[in-house]
TrEMBL record:
Coiled coil: none annotated. InterPro entries: NTF2-like_dom_sf, SnoaL-like. This is SnoaL-like domain-containing protein. SUPFAM superfamilies: NTF2-like. Signal peptide: none annotated. It comes from Brevundimonas mediterranea. Residues 10-103 form the SnoaL-like domain. Pfam families: SnoaL_2 (PF12680).
Length: 109
């Protein structure tokens, strides 16, 4: 199933598929926040870059979104996540808040 994602989210997902770390970081606001599925908070592009290098880039993650839902100020994207990690493939749920064409927050569930 094809899901049309808002531009900054689509840019993030496309960069993951290419293994492009800088492309994964660019859609985030300079002071953006990622709350990873282990509950850790990563704020600002340098911290987000480090988190990406240790996770998505390290294990060749690819996201295939199949569901998009708008919840008040959040956009929730679900799909299948594959890569070189235990339990692959598995479902993912990411909740995004956008601000002026960039990702303000991303929370993994």
């Amino acid at each position: 199933m094809y899901v049309r994602l808002p531009n900054p989210i689509a840019d993030y997902v496309d960069a993951i598929a290419r293994g492009d770390v800088e492309g994964m970081v660019q859609p985030f606001a300079a002071d953006g926040v990622v709350v990873s599925d282990d509950g850790r908070r990563h704020q600002g592009r340098p911290a987000i870059r480090t988190w990406i290098q240790e996770t998505s880039a390290a294990n060749g993650t690819v996201l295939t979104p199949d569901t998009l839902c708008h919840e008040t100020s959040r956009i929730v994207v679900e799909g299948v996540k594959t890569g070189d990690f235990e339990g692959s493939p598995r479902r993912f749920v990411l909740a995004f808040e956008l601000d002026g064409g960039v990702i303000k927050t991303m929370e993994a569930a």
